[in-house]
User: Fold this.
Amino acid sequence: MTDLESFAASFDAEPGYLDWAAFGPLSRAVRAEALADLEMLGTGRPSGIELVATHVDDARELLADLLDADAEEVVLAPSAAHAVFPALCGISGGLLVSRTDASALTVAAVRAEAVMGRLRVEWMEPPHGFVSPDAVREALTAETAAVAVSLVDPRTGYVADLTALREVIGDRLLIVDDTQGFGVTDVDHEAADVVFGDGSTWLRAGRGTGWGRFGARAVERISSVLGGGAWVAAEASSDPQAEPAASAQAFAAPAADELAAARLAAALDEVGAVGVSEIARTVVERSEEVMFYADRYDIPIVTPRDPVHRAGIVALEPVPADVGPLGAALANHGVTFTARSGLIRLSPHVGTGEDTMQMLGDALAAFAAARVW
Assistant:
């Protein structure tokens, strides 16, 4: 069995699950690791406690490998929102962000502007919500210090071109929410100065597995204004007036959750064994299958057709009168999905089997048969 086949076989979510962009049911390896670590922490043996603690460094190193970064640039956090908020609070100047982007960006931006007063949010409203290089170029101002964008738009599934965005914004900071792309989208992360996400969706690591990567320019330009005892230099850890560490660790949470780190490390290890490029290719193929069924039953799709700008999310945009009936048909046929703002979001993964696609096809057929034109 090839690595990809082994990876696909590790999925044991019930048939009909097409909501990996919302939550990734934990893999067997992740569940096994969590149970083993709980047992070790229950013994009270120093060796067991120390072994569980090593998973923090394991997770950071595995993240660094997938991000083409140094482990020292990677921090762990309770969630993606917890990872990005310290970054936004430390920015001075304008932050360009789309109004329709993920709440991890938009809400954090508004809060940072209100709390710190050093950040000014510059809202953009790109066509269809696609944060393209052209849309960003038109929205940039002389005061723009940073641009924030989701690698994969959680509403539409649009995949941003990080390399092109880097060329457009020049020397400004590029901050990327990779929650909906990490592990299933093969992109150049080095184009970004700050990348953040968590393992609760496509990685199948569960909640509490947030992370961030802060490059050299981010460390230089973003002030560390939030944090606890872990973010100062080790030799000054007892000094309450100590300066923040001169590294990405200045943005780390006070203490990493070792059990969450263990789950994240187990999930990352599975991804690394297969390779992101292989996973990305398969996820795009699965999304094409979803599009095939939507097209068969004349359900409009807002997700880009071009695989370059598409990952695992397929967003359907039925006319308003059809949203309820379509959602009911999917639910009645056992399909798990997300409905939001008039869109029906379907997100398959590598382990999505033909039984699930058949359930989707049956649901859409039932909807189409009852549809009133």
About this structure: The beta strands are 74-77, 93-98, 119-124, 144-150, 173-177, 194-198, 210-214, 314-316, 338-340, 343-346.
